[in-house]
Amino acid sequence: MTPEQLRAERRERLLEAALTLFTERGYANTTIEALCSSARVTTRHFYEQFDGREALLRDLLETIVDGTLAAAWEALMNEDRDMTGRVGDAIRAVMMFLLSDSRRGQVVCVESVGVSRELEARRRVMIHAFAELIEQFGGYLAGTGLLPLRNYHLPAVALVGATLELIQEWLTGGTEMDAEGMAQEAVLFFRALIIGARRYDEELGGHAAEAAQDGEGE
């Protein structure tokens, strides 16, 4: 192997060790020595890759987020489904990616929370990346008449937050549902949002959408 390949391999082993130890012991209780032992690298090799534990956690979080976004995009690009079906499939794909290997969900929803202001800022970027996907397709659905015309930024952020809370509820044993059942619950929430927004706007004769657009413009 070339030196670059060796460094890349050591980095992958450290990420895998972090995924296992951070979720088994907790981030706060995992030492760099334990990570190096699990990854079969020296501390010198560790610091060639990362400044410290938080840098490793940050890269692990971003790796998981990249995988989650890729799963969502794959569902959204499925031309065999209508747009409502695609968004529902994307939400299901996100849930299944984070719950099929529950360590991923634990890193996103538990271990990376409250570590530092910098990491919290990165988590906010992650939340807004998912929200932008939903907002974009919410706008598309509004353009086709399936949703009222309005700004969907806040509903999208709320939907991402609700999805993360569902994941945390599952991780902490708050429900006996399996991963597939939790994914279906998240899709149900999305469909309820569509139906509710449409009915609410119809009841108010379109004034709800106009008010939402006016509020965003202030």
Description:
- With 218 residues, the chain is mainly alpha-helical.
- The protein folds into 2 domains: 1-50, Arc Repressor Mutant, subunit A (Orthogonal Bundle), CATH 1.10.10; 53-210, Tetracycline Repressor, domain 2, CATH 1.10.357.
- Helix content is 78%, strand content 0%.
- It is built from 10 helices and no strands.
- The model has no long low-confidence stretch (mean pLDDT 87).
The major sheet is characterized as:
none
The domain tally reads 2
* First-to-last CA distance: 59 Å
Beta content comes to under 5%
Radius of gyration: 20 Å
Rounded average pLDDT:
87
Report the helical percentage.
Answer: over 70%
Structural class: mainly alpha
CATH architecture grouping of the largest domain: Orthogonal Bundle
Instruction: Give me the strand/helix succession.
Output: HHHHHHHHHH
Task: Tally the beta strands.
Answer: 0
CATH class (first level) name of the largest domain: Mainly Alpha
What name does the CATH topology of the largest domain carry? Tetracycline Repressor, domain 2
CATH homologous superfamily classification of the largest domain = Tetracycline Repressor, domain 2
The global form is: elongated
Count of alpha/pi helices: 10
Query: Low-confidence parts, pLDDT < 50 over ≥5 residues?
Result: none
